[in-house]
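Entry: Transcriptional regulator
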Amino acid sequence: MNQTCAVTMRDHDPGGGHDDAASLLSLEMQGVSRSIRRYLTSTMPESTKVTGGNVHIIMFLAKSEGSDVFQHDIERRFSITRSTASRVLSLMERKGLIVRTSVAADARLKRITLTDAANAIVAELCENAQRMERQLMAGFSEREERQLAEYLKRLRNNVDMAQRSFDAASGSDSATTAYQANTNKEDQ
């Protein structure tokens, strides 16, 4: 392992200096994301029986009620590849959580809607998500919450732009293969 990297990792303190935190920001974000997913899954009411990844899609569809939502909307919203979105949506369809229906103007487009079974658990999922948000933001002022949300959006945009640039330079979308493999494990 590179000596500089080993020292940075060994000396890293999440509450410490800017240089250490910045060098391992992606690891901290990944840890927070996994912790949130684990918490949401473990505190999920028995009656819902859905996984963390499915919860986010269900909540997105519930909030989008009245609007047409297609697979590409899910891909963009959750920063997942086409094949990952297709696989996750197929699993959700088999579980009876969503229905995909063809659009008259273009049979290739499939409108995604929640089933009655999924709609029946939205209130419980929402309550669980709100409890998680309160826990996550404990000790933050409203101003800090807004700043954090803005910083996270900027980080996500920066990563998305870097990925698009890399994909354009390489002439393919194969750059997301490793990301897709990891996402596939987490979305099940």
